[in-house]
Design goal:
Elements: H1 5-32, H2 39-63, H3 74-94, H4 99-117
Helix pairs in contact: 1-2, 1-3, 1-4, 3-4
Length: 121
Amino acid sequence: MSGGPADGVMDVFRDLVWDQLVKLAISKIIGLAPFLSWGPVGFIVGKVVTYVAGILYEELHEAVNFQVIILKHASHHRAFVDSQITLKSIAELKGINSQEFKNAREIHKAALAKFVSTPRA
């Protein structure tokens, strides 16, 4: 990875969609076996799932061009495209390490998280 603005914007997919799916998977795993949420066991389960998901994401990132993924639901797609445009603009003007970019990414992450956790129709 080159570490430029394009990489930062592409990692928005990770923040907005992938990380939310990982959190959902952890909650489902703990829902299936509630004892997994107990103290150090819950911490370890979360770390292991997050680690494995990170490896999977990196492999997918190499194999799949996330820029061409089409979201099925029109409102999901529009919201994702809008946030990519906004974040790309901020990344180009202020940089991906700027506080403005980080704040905007958090706002968009929270707004798009509802699409990941909503049940499929």
